[in-house]
Amino acid sequence: MSRSRASLSPAASERSTLPMGESAGPGSPAFKPLEPTREQLLNHFFERFKFYTSLCLGTSAILAVFAFLFLIPFVVEPAVQTILAEFVPEAGVCSVSEHVHAETLTNCTWASCREGCTTAHTKCHKIRVNLARRPFVEGGPAPAEWDATDLRFLINPEGCGYPPRVNCSVFASDYAGPKAPKTFPCYYSLTRPDLVVARACNRRVHAESFASKEDSKLLCELDEDPSDDVF
Predict the structure, then answer these.
(1) Is 149 strand, coil or helix?
(2) CA neighbours within 13 Å on the CB side: how many for 135?
(3) What are 104-157's pLDDT values in tens digits?
(4) Measured between alpha carbons, how far is 228 from 231 in angstroms, rounded to an integer?
(5) DSSP code at position 190
(6) Residue 131 CB partners (closer than 8 Å, separation 6+)
(7) End-to-end distance of the chain based on CA atoms, in angstroms?
(8) Rounded CA gap, 60 and 81, in Å?
(9) How far is the C-alpha of 21 from the C-alpha of 41, rounded, in Å?
(10) Which of 210, 225, 231 is nearest to 83 (CA)?
(11) pTM (2 decimals)?
């Protein structure tokens, strides 16, 4: 009878060989966790490094795409338009032939100046000028004959900008107000005869037209709107 009991419980004999009161669990003082090897630590570091690097590069790429799409209508397209327009490096002579302060959307299908390039305006200044394609001389007499008349006059090639750089009320007062000069410098396009602007900075043209860099900056300094710059 005693022999059968011993044969039925071999595990008891195995458990009895362990020291009394000692356990192999994590809470035991005798428990020693296996320490990772140097290779395991390096592999773990490189895995985390690749993960965070991929995450940063992916986020940067997405932000760059959105920034590029956002800047196309504000920087890329105006720069291309300015290059294609080929504005003259030396200002011509202009004189206001008509100034209308219009209201409602139907009357503001175009405007000489808009404060904001993405929104429609219900009030606008529409200025037309006569143009003489000859160098402007400060204090010189008005031309007896004009090369073109009643041309649309814009503040810059886009006809728009953002405050405080662009203030349409000040622009209209400076060129068509009671104290505005009878003639003033303006810049016309060689490829678009109907395009006349108050400011047009084309550094590529100036680099070819002036002997020194200091001279080439003279016209560009007149332009306070960086969206007009080609480069």
Answers:
(1) strand
(2) 3
(3) 988 999 999 999 887 788 899 999 999 999 999 998 888 999 999 999 999 988
(4) 9
(5) S
(6) 92, 93, 94, 146, 147, 148, 149, 151, 186, 188, 196
(7) 104
(8) 29
(9) 35
(10) 231
(11) 0.57
